[in-house]
Amino acid sequence: MTMARDIMHEGAQWIPRTETLDRAAQLMLRLDVGSLPVADPNERLCGIITDRDIVTKCVALGHDPAKVTAGDLCEGTPRWIDAEADIGDVLQEMREHRIRRLPVIDHKRLVGMISEADLARHLSDEQIAAFAESVYAASR
């Protein structure tokens, strides 16, 4: 049985909700990622921000990314998956919520992220096609 732990990208890092977006962008650049999980002071997931969020919800609106925090951009209930979850549960979570990145949690700690690229490396062409159709087709 393939689990979330088996397909995740290890080494994901939190960013505190109080961190500014310019610092978030610098960390994304250094880690070569397009998203960061956002944590509260108790290191609990409170959201995810993406490079696109920084551009469309801050810069494009004329806000200063040195003054806007990661927590300011977090919206809704953050989604995550347990490291021991089956790949079917991973796909269901991502399809149901139409998300492209999923934090992986083990014993209340962030241990990795699952992205579309991770899925592509571990699923059959048919599974990838079904995932893409369910996530993208409905978003038109």
From TrEMBL:
Keywords, alphabetical: CBS domain
Keyword Calcium: no
Matches recorded under InterPro entries: CBS_dom, CBS_dom_sf, Diverse_CBS-Domain
Keyword field contains S-adenosyl-L-methionine: no
Residue ranges annotated for the CBS domain, each copy included: 8-65, 73-130
Pfam families associated with the record: CBS (PF00571)
Name this polypeptide is given: Hypoxic response protein 1
Organism listed in the record: Embleya hyalina
Gene behind the chain: hrp1
